Amino acid sequence: MSYADIAAKGPKQTPEELTAITPTLYSRAPAPPQIEHTDESESLIDVDSKSVHSVPSDYLSQSVKTDTQAERLEREAEDQEREAEAEYKKAKKEGKAKAGQAKAEARKATSSARDSLSRASKDFRDNSDNPVVLGNAVLAAVLGVGLGYGAYRKHVTGELNWKVAGAWSGVVGLIAVGDYYVSQYLFQNKFPKK
């Protein structure tokens, strides 16, 4: 048996006893006061400032939360701007210097190429009757015609591929190396250059 069952069997309280404990039978506690919720409520505290201030409730969603942070970001932005401007001026100065150097080198290379070309053309004119030079010219012409005709025939029959082209490139390279050494021998021993 429970305590509630035993208490229910005992004597009932008199009305005076009931009113002494509670003023009315059906009375209840008063409703707690309600707090108004507004979007402008200030609940967080800015501890970076000299005195304590409350801050807006959307404080945590702000990108810059304090005056100190805003000032720091502003200083950093100014520093970055100064650095970028200094780098730009430095790059511009270096660019002008490099452009001047490049122009000078281009002039030097152009004059060198002209000199080399004029020497080569003079050398060719002086040695145009040399049998080694004539033989090399005939060999280059015959080799070009032969390769062109052979490549055309392979193309028409559908047999021209990278493997064939590579093999013939190797043959041309061997012929060029052999011609160089034979020409050098002939120039030194039998038909010297003028």
Q: Mean pLDDT across all residues, rounded?
A: 82
Share in β-strands: under 5%
What helical percentage do the residues reach? 55-70%
Helix and strand sequence: HHEEHHH
Number of strands: 2
Give the helix tally. 5
The outline comes out as elongated
Order of strands across the biggest sheet? Answer: 1-2
* Main sheet overview: 2 strands, antiparallel
Estimated radius of gyration: 52 Å
Uncertain segments are: none
- Quote the distance from N terminus to C terminus: 138 Å
Helix/strand structural class: mainly alpha
Q: Describe it for me?
A:
There is one protein chain. The chain is mostly helical and 194 residues long. It contains five helices and two strands. It has helices spanning 3-9, 15-21, 67-126, 131-157, 162-189; strands at 42-46, 53-56. It has a two-stranded antiparallel sheet. A hairpin with a 6-residue loop joins strand 1 and strand 2. Helix 4 (131-157) runs antiparallel to helix 5 (162-189). The termini are far apart. The mean pLDDT is 82.
How do the strands and helices of this protein lay out in sequence?
Layout: H1 3-9, H2 15-21, E1 42-46, E2 53-56, H3 67-126, H4 131-157, H5 162-189
Antiparallel strand pairs: 1-2
Helix pairs in contact: 4-5
Q: How would you describe this structure in keywords?
A:
mainly alpha, 194 residues, 5 helices, single chain, two-stranded antiparallel sheet
